[in-house]
Structures are given as C-alpha cells and as structure tokens.
Amino acid sequence: MIYTITLNPAIDRLLFIGEELVKRKTNRISKVTYDLGGKGLHGSYVMSKLKIDNLAMGLCGTNNKAALYDILTEKNIRHEFTEVADESTRECYIVLEEGVSGSTMFTEKGLVVSEFEKRNLLEKVRQKVTSQDMVLIAGSLPQNYLISDLEELLYVLKDSGCFIACDLSGEALLKAVEVGVHFIKPNEFELQEIVSKNQSLTENLEALSERVDCVIASQGEKGSFCQYQGEQFQVIAPKVEEVNDTGAGDCFVGAFLSMFYLKKPIEECLRFASGCAASKVKNNDSTSFDIEDALDLQREVTINRL
Ligand code: ATP
Ligand code: MG
Ligand code: MG
Q: Do you know which PANTHER family this protein is assigned to (predicted)?
C-alpha cells in the first residue's frame, strides 16, 4: 500500500477570468471550479488515476471537512484524515486569465494543530504503516507544526521499515535528508536551499545520495537529473506547449512512486513520470493529465546515463 501524508491540505478555488487581470477594474469571474490542494493529495490523485492502491492521510480542519471530502470522493481518492477540531482546511485562490499562461495564487496559512491532534496522527501512522508500504510526505507544514514534529513523524516511519518519500522544501527537506529518507525530488530552488553552492550538480547529487537512496533534481521544462544506486541519469523532458506548470512536480512524484512501488526499472519510472508531468503542463489546473497522452509523450523522453 502507498500512504500519502498531507499535513497542510488545501481546497483550491480556481477563478477563471475571461480576459487579462487588470488593477482598479472589476475583473469578472466567468467560472469557478474546485480542485485538490496540497502536494500529498496531488500524489494520491495520480496514484488513484493509475489504479495504484493508496490511502490519503494527514490533517484537516473539521469546519469545512465536508467540502474537502466531497472533492476527494469526486476524484476517487480514499482518505482517512486526522481531524483538527474547530479549524478550517485552508483555501487557495488561483486566478486563471483567458489567453495568459500560468496562474496567480493566493494561499491561506492553514491549520493550527494542537499537541493532541499531532499525537493522533502519529498513532494512526504507527498503527497502519508496515515495512511493505511506501509513504509520501509532501507539501508545506501547518503553522505550528514544528520541524521537531516532522522529525518525530519521520522516525515513526523509519521504525516501521517502510519506504519514505518526501516532497518537502527548506528546513523540512533538510530534516528529511538528515534523517535519511529514501526519496526526495527538489526542484531547482529547493535544491539550492540544501546543497553547497561551490559544487556542481553532479557532486551535490552524489553528496545527497550518501543519505537518500534516490535523489531526483527536477528542472522544469529541461527535465531532471536522478542519482540512484551509484548511477546518475539525465532525463530530457518532451517538448510541449506549456499552459500551466504548477503541479508538474507533484504529478511527476505521484507517477514515479507508482512505478517504483511496482518495482519497475528506474529508467522506466523516470520515463513514465516525465510523460505524465509533460501531459500535466498542457492543462490549466494543477492536477489534470491524460494517461494516453503521457504514454505517447514518454516516447519522446531521452535518458542519458552519465
Ligand atoms: P510543482 O509545482 O509541482 O511543485 P516543481 O517545481 O516541483 O513542480 P518542476 O521542476 O517544475 O517541478 O517540474 C517537474 C517535472 O515536470 C520536470 O522534471 C519535467 O519532467 C516536467 N515538466 C515541468 N515543466 C515542463 C514543461 N514545460 N515541459 C515538459 N515537462 C515539464
Ligand atoms: Mg517548478
Ligand atoms: Mg514541487
């Protein structure tokens, strides 16, 4: 089983504007849709779409839990969240302008979690996860969820003997590396925060791989570099017309871990994940991708063993 843990999920409210956004003008919204926010949930979305057994866990507020659960049900995502009393799962507002690529995001800070709820989550994780499982922890941390809380969660997972994947940034990513998780996928900015500026990418990946089994440094439209079992791969992404690259990394991680969980060879995992992520960037929201399109696009992925 794959478990995803989203500590700070979100309800994304997509606001479509029929023209370019203009200050001091009434910008009329032509359509509003809702989507999943939170990187762990994005991972679960990909896994569920690929029919890989998974359960979405994490923390969510009781005030608007029905809205979050409705979106999860609609997307066929099995979930078992630890509920935080009298709090609201954050909402994110994403403005999409007609004819303009990319989006503008406004995000709330998110939950305030009590010690009791932190314990509840740890207990649930301890009860469920076994050495056969894979766990993805992804996304930002709630306001008062400390790095020491993350560390405790990581050690509970380590004790279970499961495969631990982390899509985190900053201090949280540093902690994951220090604890020695099994997979990380920093993007260019996230990588800069955890490596030496005086070393080359190759050297930095080698250094990280002393602690983390599989390290993937993603570089947006250029593709990615992967260090795994003493080998390094350059992955060149297929050329596509980019509509919105938000969530490309999340889609990549979900697809990669799905294939890795099925014990597919590393190059196959990288190729398929790159195909799925390339399909994602052709869509204007942060989750949609098409499996058939991904299967076509993966043929255009070039992988060089360095
Ligand atoms: P996220 O918004 O999900 O956090 P990220 O910044 O972590 O994304 P990126 O490095 O932007 O991740 O992208 C991840 C992968 O998605 C890339 O390695 C590449 O394979 C694919 N990708 C991203 N942008 C493009 C693009 N314009 N064309 C083709 N593939 C892309
Ligand atoms: Mg990016
Ligand atoms: Mg990312």
A: 1-PHOSPHOFRUCTOKINASE, 1-PHOSPHOFRUCTOKINASE-RELATED
**118 CA to centre of ligand 2 in angstroms:** 30
| pLDDT in the model for residue 196 | 85
pLDDT at 271 over 90: yes
CA distance 269 to 261: 10
Find out whether 212 and 282 touch, Cβ atoms under 8 Å: no
Tell me which ligand sits closest to the C-alpha of residue 188: 1
Report the distance separating Cα 259 and Cα 240, nearest Å: 23
30: its two tokens: 């032509």
Q: Give the domain CATH number at 92.
A: 3.40.1190.20
Which residue, judged by its Cα, is nearest atom 19 of ligand 1?
223
Residue-averaged pLDDT of the chain: 96
> How many residues are listed for the chain in this entry?
306
Q: How many domains does the chain have?
A: 1
Q: Which-ligand-closest: CA of 218?
A: 1
278 lines ligand 1 (CB under 6 A): yes
Query: Which of 107, 218, 298, when mutated, tests ligand 1's pocket best, judged by the most ligand atoms within 8 Å of its CB?
Result: 218
Q: Does the C-beta of 293 come closer than 6 Å to ligand 1?
A: no
Rounded to an integer, the average pLDDT of 145-161 is 98
Give nearest CA residue, ligand 1 atom 30: 278
Q: Is the CB of 173 under 6 A from ligand 1?
A: no
**Structural domain containing residue 253:** 2-21+29-305
The pLDDT of residue 98 is above 90: no
Enclosing H/E stretch for 259 = helix 248-261
Q: Is the ipTM of this complex over 0.95?
A: yes
Give residue-wise pLDDT tens across range 167-197: 999 999 999 999 999 999 999 999 999 998 8
Q: Which two tokens stand for residue 267?
A: 């190059």
